[in-house]
Each structure stands twice: as structure tokens, then as C-alpha cells.
Amino acid sequence: MNTMKWLVKREYWENKGGIFWAPTIVAAAFTVLMSIAILLSAAGVTKGGGMHINGVNVHQLSGVMTEQHKIDAANGIAMSYLPITGLLLAVMAFVVFFYSLSSLYDDRRDKSVLFWKSMPISDSQTVFSKLFTILVVTPLVPLALGVVVTLVFSLVAAAAMLILGVNLFGYILSSSDLYLLPIQLLACLPIFIIWAFPSVAWFMMVSAWARRFPILWAVGIPVILGVLLSISEGMTGVGIPHEWYWENIVGRLFGGFIPGTWLAFFDSNSNVDIEPGKHSGLEILKASWAILGYAKVWIAVGIGAAMTYAAIRLRRYRDEG
Amino acid sequence: MSAVISARNLSKRYANTVAVDNVSFDIPAGRIVGLIGPNGSGKTTALKAILGLSTFDGELNVLGFNPQTQRDELMKEVCFIADVAVLPRWIKVREAIDFVAGTHPKFNRAKCEAYLAHTKLKPDMKVKQMSKGMVVQLHLALVMAIDAKLLVLDEPTLGLDILYRKQFYQNLLEDYFDENKTIIVTTHQVEEIEHILTDLMFIRDGRIVLSATMDEVADRFVEVMVSQEHYAAAKALNPIDERQVFGKSVMLFDGVPRSQLNQLGDTRNVGIADLFVATMKGTYA
Which structural domain range is residue B270 located in? Predict the structure, then answer.
């Protein structure tokens, strides 16, 4: 297993920019801008401006805020882990997209594949180390960064409220979402892995196969096929299931990179409520794991496994001569 | 001692060319083989087949393994620099060493660091910041620190200055090589490896045109500086090459006894470079 450790490290060294720096820079920029905005508006409120937290107008607060208002405001702040991590996960979706595309292509292009192939490492180890890094290591970074940003945001928001004469620190710290949401989203990671696997496997297979421009093949083949199907259906009207194709192949392929899209793909999950203080994390968690009951999900995993096998074979026998 | 590499009717065809054409050879252990051929002669293709990097027709056995189907096992015993030293541009010296140390059971970190101590490479330097020669230095240091049974070097010194090239071949011979190891090396700078080779293999148009030990080469090929009065007699012995030096004819003979040639003028052993040029005449014609 030592080899695997070094292969994953190798992946991290090469892709540190995407795995670590991209979400970190976005998180840092977001934290700074948001802190400035909150503190400025808190300062503005004292001069007669206004500020809303979760629909509660916090102008001239100390007198009008009831106990329930405080709890709601604190729950709203504690729940910010969801939108904050959502933003970072969106960045990660791009990283995973481009990482998968270049994973088995870049070293062939610059011929350093010959160096990697001179080491006693099997091609399946190489492919699995890349899959593991893309699907497990990469998502852990935004999930962890989200915790840090949420804590900073909560502190800044509470400080701003304190300027306005309301002390929310205790309320925020006693909001269960502050602690549970990171764990609940982490518990959704296996679902992301299962969901993203077929999409990543397709991109990696193309990445191992394409002589040039893997992005054109990876994106072009499914899209052009869809256009052809739609045109054929438009011209003949014989009932080619082109809409099914667009949703279940193209939509599923690109949706696979974006965490949470699985909730939109299955009807029974469309009623997830995201509201402060309503255990939204639990609902997301339950609805996410519910997709394992759908055959479609497992069929896609099977196709992903076949494509991973193909990627390993291509990596092994593609002649770089 | 059984052969380290044994090839029978080895062929490699691309769409419209034959890169390696029905070649058979054996390379025993403890040899340093120079694989010499002009550009496009099939050297790299043959080496890639040996290293399991490409498919081929015919039979090939490397250290008891079939490179096509048993590459993973084979790579534990083999190390190579194929097709010019290439290291990933993003990697740092330190990372490269850590990686090889972590994944290769036969890597000797101290040895690698000792080689690097003679260079200007620093642990935090990235490959993309290095000159071409420095990349080669790093790659060679990594490869030389691996105790492999078979080492394949395809143009290992390209981009290195003459000082470092000499040093490298010296190290290869003194520190690396022993009777249990086999080294195959290709290079265009033939003169520089002449003195370390034990065997010579000339390849041309995908075929092996000469395969001999250096002793055999010395026995078989003799160069004679023919004096004017013996010119006709020498010509009658069918020299394979003839050139003029200071108004005298220098002729290269294949298989003519040295005692006989001594009567024609001063004899000497032929250099690989001259032998190569004589053998490859007309390659680009």
C-alpha cells in the first residue's frame, strides 16, 4: 500500500493548484470581501442604514429583537456552511472536470509518461491513484475549508451584531447546524463519489485515448451525438428518445461533476427543505443516500467501472511511438 | 549463463513502415551493449518492445518475462531512460527522489544524493526551471541509484556537456556496472562509449547488420594505411571502405588476417565511428 501512498502524493504535488490553491484562494477572497461587507453595513446601520440577516431587519435591534428572533438569526448564520461550502464545491466541480481530462493525457503529451512507466508501478495502480485523488482527496478540501470560512463568517457576523447591541455568540454556538452540517455533508461524500465516478471515468478514458485535444472528444462526442439524434428525430419523427438521451446521458455526464445534482435527478427527492433550524442537513443526507435505491445509479457505476478498465488498458497498451 | 534478452523473429510494423524487421538476437548478462544506428533505423522501437512499451510480433524474453504480458514484474528488475530523458516539468528534485525512494524497492537514496552533489541541482528546484542538461543530470542520478538487472539508456547524454558526459560514463562503468548487470545504450556520440562497450550491435532499416563483441570487432575489422606501391594489391582484397588522409589511402578490411595486412602498410584497430560510417554508407541515399 506504500506505493499507493506515494502515487497519491504524486497526484497532489502535480495538481496542488487545483486541489488546494483554487478553493483556498476563493475561500480567502470570499472571507475578506464578506467580512468587509458585513462590518461596513454594521457601521452603516448605526448611521441609519439597514441590514437584513435571514429576513430579519436588524435596524435598531437591541430593543426589538425577541428571543425567537435571536435564535432564528443565529440558526441562519450557523447554516451558512451550506452556501459557503456550495460555492467552494462549485469551484471543485471545475477542478474535477479539468483534472479528469488531463489526468492520463498531460504526461503523454510531454512524454514524461516514459519516466512514470520506468518505475515498478502497474497501470491499474496509476489509474486508481488518480481516481482516488480526484474523487476523495479533492472534495475533502472544500468540505474542510467550508468549516473555516463558516467559523470566520459566524464570528464576524456575531461581532457585527454586537456593534448593534445584540450578543448572538451564545446563540450561534448553540445552534446544532454549526456542528452537524459539516459532518452531514461529509457523510454525503460517498454519494458524490458514486455519482461522479461514471463522469470522471469517461473523461479519464478519453484522456488515456486522445492523441490531441481530449476536451473536444470528451465533450464533443456526447454532444454531437445528441444533436444528431435530435435532428434525426426532427426530420423523421419515428420516436428516437433524444430527450431521454439529453437528460440521462449528456445531463448526467456533466451533472456528475457537480455535487448535489443527484437531488434533481430523482423525483422523490425534489422536496428537500432548506431552511434555518429545520435540520436541512439531515434532509439532504437522507435524500442523497436514497438515490442508492435507483437502478440507474448502479448502471452508471457499472459503466464507469467498464470505462475505468478501458482507461487502464489504454494506458498500458497505447503506443507512444 | 542464460540470456538476459532473447529475441526471435522480432518485428514491429506501423501502418506503412516496418520499423523492426524480423530480428533475432541474444544478450547475455554482464554485457554493455552499444546499439548503434542512424536516425529512424528502429533502435528506439526495438528498445520500446524490450521495455514493454509497445506491442510487437515474434518472441521476446527479457529476464524471463514477456514484456508484453508481464510488464509489471519486469519493471522491478529493469530501469530505463527511453527516448531522451523526460521528467515531468512540475516535479521538484526533492519530490522526484522521494517518489522513487517510496515506490522503487531497489533505489538507493544515498547514492542518488551523492551523484546530485556533483551538480548544481538543489532540492527545491523544479524541472521547468532547469536547463536541458540539468534535467538529464537529475534523471541519470535517479536511474543510476536503482540497482536494476537491466538498464536501458536511449540517448542518455543528449544535452549534456562533454565534461559531464565523460563523468557519467565513468560512473556507469565504475559504480554501476558489474557482472550481474546488463546495460544497453544508444547514442550518436559513438566515440565516447567505445571504451566501455563489451558488445556492439549495428542496426539499419530495422535489421541487425552487425552483432559482435568488441574483441571480435577488433579481430575482424582492421584499418590499414596503405602505402602507394601496395595500392593495387590492397584494392584486390576488397576493402569495405576507403578514404584519403594526407595523400595516403586508409582502407578498412573485413575478415582479412592482420598478418597479411601488415605487409600493405601500418595497421590499426578501427574506431566504432569509422566502422559505423563504412557500414551505413548509402543509408540516406
Answer: 217-279
